Input
Amino acid sequence: MSTSKAFITPLRDLHVSSHQIPAFNRLPNTSIQKKPLLIYHSAFRPGTSASTIESHLTSVGVVDPQWRYTMYSTSHFHSTTHEVLSVSAGKAQLCFGGEDNPKRVEPTVEKGDVIVVPAGVAHRLSKDVDGGFLMVGSYPKGKSWDMCYGKEGEEEKVKRIEHLGWFERDPIYGDQGPALNV
Output
């Protein structure tokens, strides 16, 4: 897949943050598969619409865009799939790893950023900075998401994470990209 599209930051110019987050209480975070939380800063250039993001994700063919929404303000994670969150509007502070976890990650993300959230990583909205924060939520083809909260009784769901496959192609860049280098 060519990355010469005007709305995508060329891979050579992309800045990526990578975070390993240890398990905390009943939140597995990155401890099971050891795949990091990835933030692609400004992967989509200014002015890129949610529709254009969805079309691009569909054309790359790794994930299916499934919703446009903000992020829940309650910490949760998914045991059935990894998640790709493309910020389509606004700016927000997010919390990954659990709000009481001393090793949590609390980035401020904004329009154009993409977050690759491995299964098991707790996440929540901490603050919608400008009141207009929206994302395109996408999941690997053929996967559906569940909701887990780090509560008693979710142990069997957490065990499933170990057997999930990782991305064979990068969800934004296709045959090359940060998700392939972890």
Notes: Residues 50-60 form the longest helix (11 residues). The radius of gyration is 15 Å. The mean pLDDT is 96. Residues 62 and 171 are 5 Å apart (CA to CA).
